[in-house]
Structure formats: C-alpha cells, structure tokens
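User: Working on a comparison across species. This one is DUF3263 domain-containing protein from Rhodococcus jostii. Can you predict its structure so I can line it up against the others?
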Amino acid sequence: MTRRRPGTATAVPDPLTPQERRALEFARTWAPFGEPPDGEIFVEFGVDLTRFYHDLVRILSTHCLSCLLAPAERAQVLQLANNHT
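Assistant: Here's the predicted structure for DUF3263 domain-containing protein from Rhodococcus jostii:
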C-alpha cells in the first residue's frame, strides 16, 4: 500500500503491513478504555495477549509513527503494550 505525502504527487510506501496497521488501529481504539475484553485479541488476530502486545511494542519502536498517531495516542498505546510485555 502506498500513500501520498501531503502537498506532493510522490507516492511513499506505507511503512506498515496491513496486519501491523490493523493492530495499531485496534490498540488505538481500545487504549482510552483500557484493554479489550478477554479473547477479543485472539478472535481478531489469532494470537495471545503477550504476542499481540510484544508485536505492538515492536511496531511502535521500529516505525516512525508521528504521522499515524498523535503523541498522546502513542503514549496511551505504548503504556498499554508495556503493561503486558
């Protein structure tokens, strides 16, 4: 997947895979409310809590996400993930 940088006609590759983007969006949605109900992560992603949050920490630490998450959102998601790793 590619996206266009604002104000340019140049396409830039999306730094996240579709699965990573889904996980990040899922975590961003739930972060203000705490963690999702038991089993929801397994139903959505097919992995246990530990694996999901480990992957989330990896995503947050290896990608420049300033254009994807506001600083407050990133802090919420990271805190939730760090509580499980």
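For your comparison, note: The longest strand covers residues 2-4.

User: Helpful, thanks.
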